[in-house]
Design goal:
The protein has a single domain, classed as Aldolase class I (TIM Barrel, Alpha-Beta Barrel), CATH 3.20.20. The protein has twelve helices and eight strands. By secondary structure, it is of the alpha/beta class. It binds ligand LZUJQKHR. Ligand LZUJQKHR binds next to loops. Its main location: cytoplasm.
């Protein structure tokens, strides 16, 4: 089980590879994870936004976790596995976390309940129930996708819940982290790739970054420089990653990322499940240029 002090470094949210008929492609998944595990990543996030959680069934999540464990066993390696378990229904979320505990994951990522626009009190109760299950919870704030923004006070109160070990902050800037940093708080992982360096400077303990699927070692080095207090080197290296991040998020994540992984032969197909769609031809040209460099 993950502890607060483990929320450090680079956690990579992984894609869920599909064949062209949208079926789960576990062969590609094993190959892809094998390549990622060559890097010194702190952990993997399965069924996050990048894993297309809205279209992946819970049975498929179980298959993905089992496949990840078998890849790690074959390599004699064990790093933490976090799975996205949040939904907009508290009881379903609790059931998923119970199952997550049974299949032996290390923590769950619980997104702010989306769509129904609950009150801040309702959201707090959602996180209390999620944390009561006993599997460590990382709260995930991403208003651009959930349609609801947590107040700073609600975030503080969520972080105080026993069993909530930290926050993934994809709130769209540094304001939330700045408001929290003067207080004694649990670890915050940056989940907003373009702000990675700024958030490290403000005390983020690492990142959960889709773009760390590409140039993984460079993202790890940005973290390491910052961790040593060398923010100048961290910034120089991070600046070289900005064009990649911008391209990866020019259209909805994870379509550009899957296209790049497929072009490199790491996964067989760039298929995303509808209503997500493939990247436009214009972006393909730019991504291809990036690959050439
Ligand atoms: O899958 C994730 O977790 C992430 N999702 C965010 C998004 O797609 O909006 C971005 C972040 O890099 C990680």
């Amino acid at each position: 089980m993950l502890r607060e002090e483990d929320l450090k470094g680079i956690y990579v949210p992984v894609v869920t590879p599909f064949l062209s008929d949208e079926a789960l492609d576990l062969d590609s998944y094993r190959n892809y994870l094998g390549q990622l595990l060559r890097h010194d990543v702190q952990g993997l996030v399965i069924n996050g936004t990048t894993g297309e959680s809205p279209t992946v069934s819970w049975n498929e999540v179980v298959e993905l976790v089992q496949a990840a464990k078998s890849v790690m066993n074959a390599r004699g390696q064990r790093i933490p596995l976090i799975i996205g378990a949040g939904t907009s229904h508290t009881r379903t979320t609790v059931e998923r976390i119970e199952l997550a505990g049974q299949i032996g994951v290390d923590a769950v990522l619980v997104v702010t309940p989306y769509y129904s626009r609950p009150s801040q009190e309702g959201i707090l109760e959602h996180f209390r129930r999620a944390a009561q299950v006993g599997v460590p919870v990382i709260a995930y704030e991403i208003p651009s996708r959930t349609g609801i923004r947590l107040s700073v006070d609600t975030v503080r109160r969520i972080m105080e819940i026993p069993g909530v070990i930290g926050l993934k902050d994809s709130s769209g800037g540094v304001e939330l982290l700045s408001s929290l940093s003067s207080h004694d708080r649990k670890p915050v992982l940056c989940g907003e790739d373009l702000y990675f360096h700024d958030m490290l400077r403000l005390g983020a303990s690492g990142g959960m970054l889709a773009s760390a699927n590409i140039r993984t070692d460079a993202f790890i080095d940005v973290f390491r420089y910052a961790d040593r207090g060398d923010f100048i080197k961290a910034e120089q290296l991070f600046d070289s990653l900005i064009p990649i991040i911008q391209l990866l998020f020019q259209e909805s994540n994870p379509s550009p990322l899957k296209w790049l992984l497929a072009q490199q032969g790491i996964i067989e197909s760039d298929t995303v499940r509808l209503p997500m769609g493939p990247v436009t031809k214009g972006l393909q040209v730019q991504l291809a240029q990036l690959l050439r460099h």
